Amino acid sequence: MKIIGLTGPTGAGKTTALRVLEELGAVIIDCDEVYHDLLENDADMLAELRESFPEAFEGGAFERKKLGAVVFASPERLEKLNAITHQYVDREVSRIIDDSRKKGARAVAIDAIALVESGLGAKCDATCAVVAPLRRRVRRLMKREGISEEYARSRIAAQKPARWFSRHTDITLRNDADEETFRALCRSEFEALLGAER
């Protein structure tokens, strides 16, 4: 079973790349979904978050939007959030990978911005960064999440630049043309990865 890690800056177009991987038979592990599930169900992680970001717990109840407003305004606080959550996400992703292997999956694709910084990258046969021009990323983020341009740009500014992801992954997929062209690029790269011997 091949394990492919997909990362890159927010709004670059990872969803399109993941759809191609799914069409090629990969089990998709969305680390955002894993993370949000842990926010609802993992008492240990919530206790650590409450200690580090008490302002995200209004009247004792946790609020994701307040946590986002706190961390995306500060790269240091985002890094602190990642330091807490990566360990929990990595553990759950490892469990899903093991389960997929037992079920005979052809491939697993891990979608995670944190892939390079956490332990997930070491689990992969190959890591890919999806990058795109800034204007395209801002528009995509505004449309996808219904947020203002200012908030979209602040979220992007809080993260590492696209060139950082490219330097720390095996393959860079540049999403700088139309969607059909990008899908074709993804299919070509992923078919080569899935067809290669480990």
Question: Describe it for me?
Answer:
It is built from nine helices and seven strands, in the order E-H-E-H-H-E-E-H-H-E-E-H-H-H-E-H. It is of the alpha/beta class. The protein has one domain: P-loop containing nucleotide triphosphate hydrolases (Rossmann fold), CATH 3.40.50. The strands form two sheets. A five-stranded parallel beta sheet has the order 2-5-1-6-7, with helices on both faces. A two-stranded antiparallel sheet has the order 3-4. Strand 3 and strand 4 (61-62) form a beta hairpin. Helix 2 crosses helix 5 and helix 3 runs antiparallel to helix 5.
Number of discrete domains: 1
The CATH topology is Rossmann fold
The top-level CATH class is: Alpha Beta
The number of strands is: 7
Sketch the major β-sheet: 5 strands, parallel
User: Structural class, judged by helices and strands?
Assistant: alpha/beta
Unreliable residue stretches: none
If you average the pLDDT, what whole number results?
Answer: 89
CATH superfamily: P-loop containing nucleotide triphosphate hydrolases
Strand order across the largest sheet: 2-5-1-6-7
**CATH architectural label:** 3-Layer(aba) Sandwich
- What portion of the residues fall into strands of 2 or more residues? 15-25%
List keywords for this structure.
two-stranded antiparallel sheet, single chain, 7 strands, 198 residues, Rossmann fold, five-stranded parallel beta sheet, alpha/beta, 9 helices
